[in-house]
Design a protein that fits this description.
Protein name (chains A, B): TetR/AcrR family transcriptional regulator
Shape of chain A: globular
Radius of gyration of chain A: 20 Å
Largest sheet of chain A: none
Low-confidence stretches of chain A: none
Distance between the termini of chain A: 42 Å
Largest interface: A-B, 56 and 57 residues
Structural class of chain A: mainly alpha
DNA-binding region (chains A, B): 37-56
CATH architecture of the largest domain in chain A: Orthogonal Bundle
Oligomer: homodimer
Keywords (chains A, B): DNA-binding, Transcription, Transcription regulation
Strand content of chain A: under 5%
Domain HTH tetR-type (chains A, B): 14-74
Pfam families (chains A, B): TetR_C_33 (PF13305), TetR_N (PF00440)
Number of helices of chain A: 9
DNA sequence: TACGAGTGTTAGATATTCTAACTCAAATAT
DNA sequence: ATATTTGAGTTAGAATATCTAACACTCGTA
């Protein structure tokens, strides 16, 4: 997105940083989060350990950057799916977004776990986590908004008020609370299935997760609007 | 459960092991999975580092033991909830088991994340993971079985066959595939909500997760049996 | 009471993160 | 074109981690 960095030095710097992150993701895939080692990354890049400290404050900063990159990547994948089907029926669009979500997770399970699994380093701020997840959440929300009929009533229960307030805080057009609640449920249900699948919990059960996932999508599409 | 260890030495050994695991869980709560250090545990126990290697093969073995303990603990909590309400209506029993599930996770979020988050050490075998999660799964399954009407048909779709086969493999009384599917969905939906809550993803949203969780329980109870 | 199994210690090999001090090349400025 | 400065990479080293090996001691056991 950003145009070419001005100086050759900045370009080189950017290139080295990306290379380091690329190698870090390799390490992540091979040996898990705790296998990401500044030293090993440097060695694999053909430089000594301390050299990398010119580019990252330390191991945790590098990890954090992988996390933020991951959230951005996921959000972009979902947005692309939504955009690709923007002319289709809302149900179709929702399905495609949901399927893209699972596909993204399965393409790079270690990254998905890095985002939604145990916080790895010292501890990353939960607020940061939320800010980042929010962009994906918004795409799902838009897909759910398009599904809802026009005449949904406004609820008065506690979670409804919270959701409406949250939506207002972001300066987005208001949506009926039932829609917001449905969007959150969509998020948690899809995440529940995907995270257990990625963590290998279905493996021993002999269940193919895909039909389950599809049926859960249909459940969300056909569930009555209270 | 196990009766008193015979020799004083075995008793002492058991005691030391438990103490070590207790301290390890403290470390886990304070500094996350990567903060669990054999050295630090030993220091906190008043001995030197290498002493602990008499009791655990290494750091990974200790970690693995924390994981297996956690799965056992969770399963026992769910079984206790089911047992406490064994005379109540099936819907009540299911509700209580589901609520206990969330309560267990909230009481010790770091442990829940240790079980269902990113695999931490080298890599624990997924089969092991499944074996252990199975016991909790079974309790949920029993609760769902009790909910189902008696005249459910047997499906012929692929996931149904898999689920039935899985159930048979464990030598348990057969259950209609719709029931098994519902049980898996219960598991994934509850886990989806709880894991996002425990990971702090709802924090910034200002949503109280409890009403959402309860509504999801009711959704499971009232969803038609296809 | 003598033995031996088991517990804990120190020393050390290896690997990690990260800082400090230094060199050197290359981009920038004059 | 030359001088200056910026910054990349190096080695050295402090602090801490896992884990092994060799040794000492102690307390159950025979």
């Amino acid at each position: 997105m950003n145009e070419a960095p001005r100086s050759p030095r900045e370009r080189f710097r950017e290139q080295t940083r990306n290379e380091a992150k690329r190698v870090a993701l390799e390490q992540l895939a091979e040996s898990g989060p705790s296998g990401i080692s500044v030293n090993a990354i440097a060695k694999r890049m053909g430089v000594t350990g301390p050299a990398l400290y010119r580019y990252f404050e330390g191991r945790d900063a590098l990890l954090t950057e992988l996390v933020t990159d991951g959230y951005r990547d996921l959000a972009e994948a979902l947005e692309a799916a939504a955009h690709a089907h923007r002319r289709k029926a809302p149900a179709t669009r929702f399905r495609e977004v949901a399927l893209r979500f699972r596909a993204w997770a399965l393409e790079q399970p270690h990254r998905y776990l890095l985002l939604f699994g145990t916080p790895v380093p010292g501890y990353r701020a939960p607020e940061l986590t939320f800010e980042l997840a929010d962009r994906s959440m918004r795409t799902i929300l838009e897909a759910v908004v398009a599904l809802a009929p026009a005449d949904l009533p406004s609820g008065r229960a506690a979670p409804d008020r919270e959701l409406v307030a949250w939506r207002e805080r972001r300066g987005e057009p208001p949506a009926p609370p039932a829609v917001l609640r449905r969007a959150v449920l969509a998020w948690t249900r899809l995440h529940g299935l995907v995270s257990l699948e990625v963590a290998g919990q279905f493996g021993g059960m002999g269940v193919s997760p895909e039909p389950l996932y599809r049926s859960e999508i249909e459940n969300l599409l056909h569930q009555p609007w209270e």
